[in-house]
Write a structure and sequence with these properties.
The chain is α/β, with parallel strands linked by helices. The protein contains five helices and eight strands, in the order αβααββββαβββα. Strands 1, 2, 3, 6, 7 and 8 form a six-stranded mixed β-sheet that branches. A hairpin with a 5-residue loop joins β4 and β5. α3 packs across α5. The chain starts with 7 loop residues before the first helix and ends in a 34-residue tail after the last helix.
Length: 242
């Protein structure tokens, strides 16, 4: 899910004038510079209150260590995808100082400006991940040190009624003057946060600047392996070559 608005005419033009190619096979990263090194994405993480409280019950006490271990699993898998990007790739770097949202510096409002619905001021719907995304993003934008980290991620409990599992602001990691650089990841299994690792890597891809989905370029997505397809397979791993 991305938040850059594209004209319907542009989408029509892309889909109707571009000749789609057969889906690619996996191609390793290339380096077209004299030296390629992995670039670091500094991340700060927040845990939605209800998810934190569920983890307290699961751990029968302070869940910090258990959540930290789940983060290790998530980002070890996500970093395998990011390593495959060209010119050195990327690596998420995070400290294990996970924090419950209501104990953090984030101050949430009851309304937000809905940028995908005519910039209307809208009441927050806590059951809707898009609504929560805008709410979280606006709070991050107000932080005096918002650019002290590259990306802030809010982890929430998966809304089973919502097919969207994760969101991110597009192109924000390399554009500090853009909207607040955030992502929201939903968790399905308390004992396996890494279940959505391909979806999470997909969203970080958007935050790094990948705007259009693979659907615009390829005729199909066999075995759901294309990681930037609009509907991400949980075991997707193939990026656009070149």
């Amino acid at each position: 899910m991305i938040f850059k608005l594209l004209s319907p005419w542009l989408l029509f033009w892309v889909s109707c004038t571009a000749q789609k190619s057969p889906p690619p096979e996996f191609v390793g990263p290339v380096c077209d510079k004299s030296r390629c090194t992995r670039r670091v994405i500094k991340v700060k993480m927040y845990i939605e209150d209800s998810l934190w409280d569920r983890m307290v019950r699961e751990a029968e006490g302070d869940p910090t260590e258990r959540i930290g271990k789940q983060m290790d699993i998530i980002f070890s898998r996500v970093n395998k995808h990011l390593k495959n990007l060209d010119n050195g790739g990327f690596k998420v770097d995070f400290a294990r100082d996970v924090v419950k949202l209501n104990r953090s510096e984030i101050v949430l409002e009851d309304t937000y400006v809905d940028r995908i619905n005519g910039n209307k001021t809208t009441k927050v719907d806590p059951t809707d991940i898009i609504s929560q995304t805008f709410q979280f993003q606006e709070a991050v934008q107000k932080l005096p040190d918002r650019n002290s980290t590259d990306l802030r991620i809010l982890f929430i409990t998966e809304r089973r009624s919502d097919p969207t599992l994760a969101t991110a602001e597009e192109t924000c990691i390399c554009n500090p003057d853009w909207f607040g650089c955030i992502a929201v990841f939903s968790i399905r299994f308390l004992d396996n946060w890494g279940h959505g690792q391909a979806v999470f890597a997909h969203e970080i891809g958007h935050a790094l600047g990948m705007d259009l989905h693979d659907d615009q370029f390829y005729t199909s997505n066999p075995k759901s392996r294309l990681i930037m397809w609009s509907s991400v397979g949980f075991h997707a791993y193939i990026k656009q070559p070149g």
